[in-house]
Hints:
single chain; alpha/beta; Rossmann fold; seven-stranded parallel beta sheet; 8 helices; 7 strands; 44% helix; globular; binds nicotinamide-adenine-dinucleotide
Amino acid sequence: MTDLDLSGRRAVVTGAASGIGAACARRLAAAGAEVVVVDRSNDGARAVAEEVGGLPLVLDLGDLAAVDAACAPGGLLAGADVLVNNAGLQHVAPVEEFPVETFSLILRVMLEAPFRLARAALPHMYGQGWGRLVHVSSVHGLRASPNKSAYVTAKHGIEGLSKTLALEAGGRGVTSNTVCPGYVRTPLVEGQIAAQARTRGIPESEVVGQVMLAASAVKRLLEPSEVAEAVAFLCSDAASYSNGSALVLDGGWSAR
Ligand code: NAD
C-alpha cells in the first residue's frame, strides 16, 4: 500500500456513496483524512460518511446552481485539501438516438461540476501551498467506443481540464492528475450489461467477455479498491512530481 498520511487534511470525494467513490472515501479516511462524502443519494452518502467517520453532503452535481451554492467560501467544498472528482453516469445509445437532455446532464455532472469544484477549492490550496486534484477519468478519456458519445466527450474533456489545472497549479504546490480505469466491478458497469446486450444484439452473458474485456490483455474486471489505491498514490508525497498525467489502469487496452 502507498505510504500516505492525510492527517489534518480534508478530502472531498464526489459520487462517494457507491463503487469507486466509496472505495476512495475508505482509502483516504484510512490515511487519516476527514472525508466529505458528496453524492445525490441521501441514504448512500450518510451510510458511507458514517462508515468512514466523515461528513455527508447531499448534492446533485447536475444542478449547477446547487453546486455553486455548495462551493461558497468557508464551506466544506471550498476548504478541500484533496478533491477527487469521481461522480459519473453512463448512457448507451447511438448518436442519432441519444437524448439531448441526457447528453447535457452527463456533461454537467462529469465536466462542468468538476470545473466548478476545482475552481472553488484552488484558493484554499494555493493559500497553504499544497493540494491534490484527482479526477476519475477512464480509458474512455483516451479512447472512444461506439454508443457512448456523452461519456467519451466528458472523459476527454476532463483530461484536458486536468492538464490545464496542472499547468496553472503545479508551481504552487498543487497537482492535478487523472486515473483512467478500464471496466471496474461497480453498479455503473452492472447497469450497462443489459443496455450493451440490447444495442449490440448479443446475450447479456456474453457482454463482459466479448465487449468489456475484448480490448484488455488482462481478462478480469478491475476492483474499486485498486482504483482507490491509484488515487491514494497520486495524493502521496511520492507522487509530488506527477502532474498533468493520466495513471492508466486498463489491462493493456490503450496499448493497442
Ligand atoms: P457508481 O454508479 O457505482 O457510482 C457513481 C456515484 O455517482 C453514485 O453514488 C451516484 O449516486 C453518483 N452520482 C451520479 N450522478 C450524480 C449526480 N448528478 N450528483 C451527485 N452524485 C451523482 O459508478 P462507478 O463505476 O463507481 O463510477 C465512478 C466513476 O468512475 C465515474 O466517473 C465513472 O465514469 C468512472 N469509471 C468507472 C468505470 C467502471 O468500469 N465502473 C471505468 C472507468 C471509469
